[in-house]
Write a structure and sequence with these properties.
alpha/beta; 210 residues; globular
């Protein structure tokens, strides 16, 4: 089963994608993860990506698509995969369609995690990170122990102004993918992502007939 997982930043795509990948016994393909792995291994595509990154430039879609192709060609992805964080816009979606056609594969569905903007802001702006351990807490949902609270920091991308900007970017660039896939005839499943993790996962599996 080949699926795309969409949703605004902070909607829980990473968590739900990992759980869904385990349930379906397929890998989760995150472009961030496969890029870091290619850099670590020093693959040809990883070296090409590093050249752009060292120059302070975005890694071009052609390189990202090459990494995605390699990931899809792995034995682990023979029965499918879940795309998390890719595609990010219609141009990438069109390029992915062309790649899948060349590989004689097709998408089975798109899952959209729906979470209100105010909920996203509350989730992300309440996060605090321990600078030494990397442990993440939440002021409301997962409060830190009192003895380390003064050590925690708020990451710049968790600040409310930044979160709202990221939501606007998502709305402009990524939300149009929903209509793109609907018009392409790909099944699009909308799931309420504001509920507890277990309920969201159960709904995802139900939508997929599992």
């Amino acid at each position: 089963m080949l699926l795309i997982l969409l949703g605004p930043p902070g909607a829980g795509k990473g968590t739900q994608g990992s759980l869904l990948a385990d349930a379906l016994a397929v890998p989760k393909i995150s472009t961030g993860d496969i890029l870091r792995e290619a850099l670590r291994k020093g693959t040809p595509l990883g070296l090409e990506a590093r050249r752009f990154m060292d120059a302070g430039e975005l890694v071009p879609d052609t390189v990202i698509l090459g990494l995605v192709k390699d990931a899809l060609g792995s034995a682990e992805a023979a029965e499918g995969a879940i795309f998390d964080g890719f595609p990010r816009n219609v141009a990438q979606a069109e390029a992915l369609d062309e790649l899948l056609a060349r590989l004689d594969r097709k998408l089975d569905g798109v899952i959209v995690l729906e979470v209100r903007a105010d909920t996203i802001v509350e989730r992300m702006s309440g996060r605090r990170t321990h600078p030494d351990t990397g442990e993440v807490y939440h002021l409301t949902h997962n409060p830190p122990p009192p003895d380390i609270e003064h050590l925690l920091v708020q990451r710049p991308d968790d600040q409310e102004e930044t979160v709202r900007h990221r939501l606007k970017v998502y709305e402009k660039a990524t939300e149009p993918l929903i209509e793109f896939y609907k018009s392409s005839g790909v099944p699009v499943h909308h799931v309420d992502g504001e509920r507890p993790i277990e309920m969201v996962q159960a709904d995802l599996l139900s939508e997929l007939g599992r």
